[in-house]
Amino acid sequence: ALRKSIIAKTAKQNHKFEYHLQPRASAFKVAILGAAGGIGQPLALLIKMSPLVSALHLYDIANVKGVAADLSHCNTPSEVLDFTGPAELAKSLNGVDVVVIPAGVPRKPGMTRDDLFNINANIVRTLVEAVADNCPDAFIHIISNPVNSTVPIAAEVLKQKGVYNPKKLFGVTTLDVVRANTFVAQKKNLKLIDVDVPVVGGHAGITILPLLSKTKPSVSFTDEEVEELTVRIQNAGTEVVEAKAGAGSATLSMAYAAARFVESSLRALDGDSDVYECSFVQSDLTEVPFFASRVKLGRKGVEAIISADLQGLTEYEAKALEAMKPELKASIDKGVAFAQKQM
Ligand code: NAI
């Protein structure tokens, strides 16, 4: 009986994994730049499980060979290739549909995301130059902080190279949505899977604005709850930085969130017509040139920027939106100035 139950269990588990063993008709190539890092490794694992991926290209300046060898033993359809150092960067981008960039240094306690600017700005500039030269048509997902500045840097680099397509450049803010959904569900005793909170603005401190009044399913919050949840969502990254006490920032929840954004992009590329995610993109929703909001994703990238979420804001949200704009604008300008200085 024990043997029977083990066989049944194994069959059930295998059945679950069969899904991943069957490649879909269309499958895509994904590259991770910074793949050996805290985010890069679990992100690579999650992407390796996607039935929409045919090849996973892992690039880093060090330690990527072992990560790739390890991952390549998972019996899921995608092929895993490793690329080490600048000499192999171009090859890592060959024929790639989606490039995810988590390369760079993370925060330590007491640091803001902007403190990372000097190091990460250069890393993102160099990597995006290579993207422009080798796979200019790919979706580009920027994770490296400060996202509010690194995305405008990427845009400038792509413009300088004559290949900027604003519909395909994304700052990854999915983790803010993931956190908002989790915290709201916990606070309101809702089923997690059902909760969706749009988070707009940017990806640092007060520029992270969860629109709690637009939560689905519709829920009501007291003023105290709004204040408490908003502040917690804005500081959730710092909560992790402090808990890790010098060992870095969010990596596992970030990998989960980034994998969700990659999967959504792949579904859009595959022709799914109902794909919506929040992302920090070039936007005319407000007077700030880059702004995170819900966007509809399609084969060509951003198909529509959803303006409805910014209508009918509560007084608290409207005030917070106005209050963030100068900081967001300054971070964008800083990125643009950095990129233009390099010309
Ligand atoms: P990590 O230090 O563990 O990994 C970074 C990786 O980047 C390392 O493997 C390193 O070798 C690699 N790297 C450095 N320079 C490179 C270059 N020029 N080319 C390619 N790879 C290079 O850091 P972690 O924790 O993975 O964080 C990465 C970035 O993601 C940080 O900037 C962090 O602030 C950001 N982040 C963004 C979040 C978001 O919501 N957008 C959330 C959490 C972190």
Automatic annotation (TrEMBL):
The chain holds residues 69 to 411 of 910 of the full protein. Homodimer. This is malate dehydrogenase. Belongs to the LDH/MDH superfamily. MDH type 1 family. It comes from the Eukaryota. The lineage of its organism: Eukaryota, Viridiplantae, Streptophyta, Embryophyta, Tracheophyta.
